[in-house]
Design a protein that fits this description.
This protein is α+β, with helices and mostly antiparallel strands and 447 residues long. The chain contains twelve helices and 17 strands. Helix 1 runs parallel beside helix 10 and helix 3 packs across helix 4.
């Protein structure tokens, strides 16, 4: 009899991983602490409970990266997507679900699966040595004992409990007729470059208008279970910094010193800097712009910055409680802990954001673990696919030292050779992704 794989965490990632293991003929033990132990965020003891929104976001596979991820997961036999499709609600182009019906469908499917055993108890320590294959999918509310065990195994600086996120902009949407490349004082960075930042200049009037828009923006409140999460002085929301005085930002993240605008004789009054955020150079991070503004407000306010009037955002900013590991440093390309390969990580704890992204990493981790049980190492999905792009991001597709949680977006994909832009370009990327996914699935079937 095949030895079971132990999956810790019955959220979307853990549920999907257990399903993929069973579909591959590998038994799984799924450990979920609820309802024996409640969390501040969950309301029920159901597997795959949706804690926040009931939306899986866009279902447009041709022009939206998360919609493409939906399509890829469906082709991979995803339980999460099957349950979502079965319990979808009217939501225009988005995939919204009846949250109770969805969770019941996932739990019923797993409970009826003879190769899945559900154990309702917390795993409060590092998995015992006799569990020779373990998948940790505990999400942002990992049990304290397990969190401490992870910290002890990975290092004190490798597990974050506080997530300060700055917006990320698609490089092609930045107006380079206004902005320019330069590092402060032309100082060479680790790669030797002296022009590593994109700089957006503001004069006195533009800075005053930006400050007024920022301070007038509506903030997103903390969730109940986040309210006692403290701000750190090193990652204050930009609107909190702005409220400390009109010059705080321009002598903080917007300081203009050491920079010269090649199109103007006078030094800018303030500057917004953007730093490359992925190895492909398609995404740039707004330096120091972590924020609690509502997403629509962020788009409105940040597009007042010269050079960003038509900015398209791969990710908007936020500050919230989270638990995620430094995956690029700790995990290999099959989601195994480099220091202890019997343990894999999956879901939000790996540094992905969103329901679908978490489930997608659970899907891959389950498939990788199943292949290992059958005696072979599964190839990763191609980086041209949504699954592959997401996996590449959390296992190395970042700029060193800058890893932050991310939703799937087209900026993570390998570039495609085309003169087309906008929706036409996205459709070509999506068509390429599905064709390459089919080849990968065929290769896996042959293996």
């Amino acid at each position: 009899m095949t030895i079971p794989v132990h999956v810790i965490g019955g959220g979307l990632a853990g549920s999907e991983a257990a399903w993929q293991l069973a579909r591959a003929g590998v038994p799984a033990v799924l450990h979920e602490m609820r309802p024996a132990r409640a969390t501040p965020a969950h309301q029920t003891g159901q597997l795959a409970e949706l804690v926040c929104s009931n939306s899986f976001r866009s279902d447009d596979w041709e022009h939206n990266a998360v919609g493409l991820l939906h399509a890829e997961m469906r082709r991979c036999g995803s339980l999460i997507m099957a349950a979502a499709d079965r319990h979808k609600l009217p939501a225009g182009g988005a995939l919204a679900v009846d949250r109770d019906g969805f969770a019941q469908a996932v739990e019923s499917a797993l409970a009826a699966e003879p190769l899945v055993e559900i154990r309702r108890a917390a795993v409060d320590a590092w998995p015992p040595a006799q569990w020779d294959s373990v998948l940790v999918a505990t999400g942002p509310l990992t049990a304290p004992g397990l969190s401490e065990a992870i910290r002890a195994r990975t290092g004190a600086d490798a597990l974050a409990f506080f997530d300060a996120i700055a917006p990320i902009v698609h490089r092609e949407s930045i107006d380079m007729d206004v902005a320019w490349f330069q590092s402060r004082y032309d100082k060479a960075g680790p790669g030797g470059g002296v022009a590593d930042y994109i700089n957006c200049p503001l004069d006195r009037e533009q800075y005053a208008a930006f400050l007024a828009a920022l301070l007038g923006g509506e903030a997103q409140p903390f969730k109940e279970w986040e309210r006692d999460t403290p701000y750190f002085e090193g990652c204050l929301p930009i609107e909190v910094m702005a409220a400390r005085g009109p010059d705080t930002l321009r002598w903080g993240p917007m300081k203009p010193v050491g920079l010269r605008n090649p199109r103007a004789e006078r030094r800018p009054f303030a500057v917004v800097q953007l730093r490359q955020d992925n190895a492909l150079g398609t995404l740039f991070n707004m330096v120091g712009f972590q924020t609690k503004l509502r997403h629509a407000e962020q788009v409105r306010v940040f597009r007042t910055i010269p050079g960003l009037a038509r900015a398209e955002f791969a990710r908007l900013g936020g500050i919230h409680r989270n638990t995620f590991i430094d995956s690029p440093r700790l995990l290999d390309g099959r989601l195994r802990l480099k220091a202890e390969p019997r343990v894999r990580f999956a879901g939000q704890i790996t540094g992905v954001e969103g329901y679908v992204e978490s489930a997608a990493i659970g899907l891959l981790a389950g498939r990788f673990a199943a292949a290992e049980r059958h005696g072979y190492e599964a190839p990763p999905p191609p980086p041209t696919t949504a699954l592959g792009a997401l996996l590449a991001h959390i296992t190395g597709g970042h700029v060193a030292g800058a890893f932050q949680p991310m939703n799937v977006n087209y900026g993570l994909f390998l570039p495609i050779e085309t003169e087309l832009r906008g929706r036409e370009r996205k459709r070509l990327v999506s068509l390429r992704a599905l064709a390459d996914l089919d080849l990968w699935l065929g290769h896996r079937a042959a293996a």
